[in-house]
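Trying the structure run again after the queue cleared.
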Amino acid sequence: MTVRGLEPGRRAALIINECQNAMIDLSFQDNVDLARQATERKITRQIAALADACRRSGVLVVHSTIVLRKDGLGMTPSCLLLGSLLKRGTCVEGNAAAEIHPDLAPQPQDYISRRHHGLTPFHGTELESVLRQRDVQTVIVAGVSTNVGVPGTCLEAINRGFTAVVPEDAIAGISPEIHDFQVQNLIRLLATVTTTDDVLTALSAVDR
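Done. Tokens:
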């Protein structure tokens, strides 16, 4: 099956957004609703399959994280979401909560893009330069959340001239209702919405 944005000859990168313990691991009890949905939807299994396939195909795997400094410098509580993150104080450098989920542990060839502030992987980071260096045309967006992070990543990518592809079974929001609403009414306007299996098939045919 052909996935728009992953046609043979196009260069892609996988962006795994905020798959940190504080976000998707229920044992950390930080974002309980989001972590529960990520667990029930088994997104780490799907994302791990995508990451493995990308590495085999020479497709760059990017782990985008938000990690606060211990003193909070650089993080401005300019909206409710960022204010809540700062107030909880768990996703802080050196804390296990800020680490990438062990099921998605980065490999040496992966790229870790860390930011202290903002809601998307492109804000205040060198991500765009990294993608340009690799001549990337399409970003495959996975992770959390369907509420903000995933559509925000797609929008920022589009603003920079990239095409976005979203495997719907590799993302999660804080509830099934919000997830479905966002996918149907927002994300599909910004990206090709597809499945992990279809992305895996497309990756196997893309000429690197």
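The domain at 12-205 is CATH 3.40.50.850 (Rossmann fold). Worth checking whether this holds up in the mutant runs.
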